[in-house]
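Hi R.,

As promised on Friday, here is the backbone we talked about, encoded as structure tokens. Could you run it through your design pipeline when you get a chance and send me back a sequence?
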């Protein structure tokens, strides 16, 4: 239905509303920037980098992607995340591809919400980022999942958000991954958590905790926007 609407409605930039394209050049400039280090209130225990504040085209893009089903936004977001990986490598924040293979692990969405949106938009962005980094082989395994009982976090305080996700993110398929040498995270892998928006940091902190419990070293978190 949404795709049909995309076809019949006049095309406009999901970042600023300018007519004629999915994502305009001006909004691309706002995304294609070196990521900045941010410190969420709930410390994820790993460095966290953001492409900018949750405002302007980043905010409009996230809303279009997540709430309005504008899948096309995943492309500029994914490309921007791939660019950001390059910046982080240039800055020496994460290892270069010669030393270490990159694994992008998405912070999970609530399952029902992801289904309603026609697939997990963050996963879509990460997969496009991986494509952009080809011929480098970047893995985007679906390792984390939210269990039942996680509420929509809109309107919750940092403490409430932490409580909301505590113990409710689980690693799935990690045992299976361990059996597969290509996916086993080790010293030769750089694991980056990926999400669209970091608000309090509660979700990223829980993701990092779960992965660390499984012996997966997390190098940092990279997000499109920080609120
Ligand atoms: Zn625009």
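Update: got your reply. Pasting your designed sequence below so it's all in one thread:
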């Amino acid at each position: 239905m949404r795709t049909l609407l995309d076809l019949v409605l006049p095309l406009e930039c999901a970042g600023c509303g300018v007519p004629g394209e999915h994502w305009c050049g001006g909004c691309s400039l706002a995304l294609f920037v070196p990521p900045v280090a941010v410190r969420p209130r709930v410390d994820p225990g790993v460095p966290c980098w953001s492409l900018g504040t949750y405002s302007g085209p980043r905010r409009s893009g996230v809303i279009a992607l997540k709430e309005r089903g504008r899948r096309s936004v995943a492309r500029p977001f994914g490309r921007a995340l791939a660019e950001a990986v390059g910046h982080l490598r240039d800055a020496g924040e994460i290892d270069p591809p010669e030393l270490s293979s990159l694994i992008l692990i998405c912070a999970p969405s609530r399952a029902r919400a992801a289904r309603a949106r026609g697939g997990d938009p963050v996963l879509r962005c990460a997969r496009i980022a991986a494509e952009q980094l080809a011929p480098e082989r970047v893995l985007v395994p679906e390792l984390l999942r939210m269990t039942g009982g996680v509420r929509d976090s809109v309107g919750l305080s940092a403490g409430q958000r932490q409580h909301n996700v505590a113990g409710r993110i689980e690693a799935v398929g990690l045992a299976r991954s361990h059996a597969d040498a290509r996916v086993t995270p080790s010293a030769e892998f750089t694991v980056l958590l990926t999400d669209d928006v970091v608000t309090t940091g509660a979700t990223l902190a829980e993701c990092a905790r779960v992965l660390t419990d499984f012996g997966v070293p997390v190098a940092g978190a990279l997000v499109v926007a920080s609120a």
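One thing I noticed while checking it: Residues 30-226 form a domain with the Rossmann fold fold (CATH 3.40.50).

Thanks again,
M.
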